[in-house]
Amino acid sequence: MGLLVDGEWRDQWYATKKTKGRFVRESAQFRNWITADGAPGPSGEGGFNAESGRYHLYVSLACPWAHRTLVFRNLKGLESHITVSVVHPHMMEHGWEYRTDDEDFRDHINGFRYHHQVYTAADPQYTGRVTVPVLWDKQRRTIVNNESSEIIRMFNSAFDEVTGNRLDFYPEALRTEIDEINDLVYPNINNGVYRCGFATTQEAYEEAFDDLFSALDRVDARLAKHRYLVGNRLTEADWRLFTTLVRFDAVYVGHFKTNLRRIADYPNLAPYLRDLYQQSGVAETVDFWHIKQHYYYSHETINPTRVVPKGPELNLDAHHDRTRFGD
Ligand SMILES: N[C@@H](CCC(=O)N[C@@H](CS)C(=O)NCC(=O)O)C(=O)O
Questions:
Q1: Nearest atom (ligand 1) to Cα of 148
Q2: In the chain, what are the domains?
Q3: Is 66 helix (H, G, I), strand (E, B) or coil?
Q4: pTM
Q5: Mutational pocket test of ligand 1: of 132, 189, 240, the residue with most ligand atoms within 8 Å of the beta carbon
Q6: Using a 6 Å cutoff on CB, does residue 243 contact ligand 1?
Q7: What pLDDT, in 10s, does the model give residues 274-289?
Q8: Average pLDDT across the chain, whole number
Q9: Partners of 314 in the beta sheet?
Q10: Is the pLDDT of residue 326 over 90?
């Protein structure tokens, strides 16, 4: 685990001294947008037209942020238009790695050994964290964007002419409500589990823990009234919550000490998670081997023995009763 400073790799763990033991996530730095006609998006520069075969996703199957982009790639029928390379789940002293001799973990575009080389290829003087997901432009040989919340918005609509898939998970009329839910879910749940796990003081951990479980209680109560977070329509808000929920009982409860309750214990969140998991194209994006290997093996400060637990048993294919709200 480390970061780049002026294009040079430095191996170091997250610094939490200045923030009293609190984990603070750094903002992503590449913020260009792919648009249907190449016009600039809400940030960054233009010229990134939606074209089949032009873009590549670098992901980890363990990472909840990268996972969102894979879910949207499938839901929006982009599998044959956007290629993917997957890092090895063990994130060690060089950060995320590719394996040149293993097809499953190869960088199919640049043949790099380390993910940080993708960043220095885009900006030789890059300073900052080296994260997944990364959306890469094969034509301009640069990073378009490394912020998952923006990549899913691009996937949601920019390629509609290319694919003919017009499913809309961020419809105009529901945006205010979706944004409000994201504002609860992101800091307290998505990032909340990391705030628990990476806290280095008791106080920081307990603060994150209380925020996390009060947000989960609120979301569970909301899901007693309708099938999804925004009424009975699947939206971006559901998919953003999904990638944290699906990792929760397998990893966060133990590894990140988020153990007040499991998702399986919640009356509404448990069947809701199964409902999302069973949507077409979604189960294929979930890989518990990658998920467990990554967290338990890579975070040496949390799990120095690197022993990876065998359980738990998860029955995500089991029946859910969420269709009672209507299809
Ligand atoms: N803002 C980013 C965050 C991505 C992120 O933090 N990814 C983690 C993996 S789950 C990562 O690559 N961490 C490496 C590091 O922080 O050094 C996004 O949502 O796309």
A1: 20
A2: 2-163 (3.40.30.10), 172-279+314-325 (1.20.1050.10)
A3: helix
A4: 0.97
A5: 132
A6: no
A7: 999 999 999 999 999 9
A8: 97
A9: none
A10: no
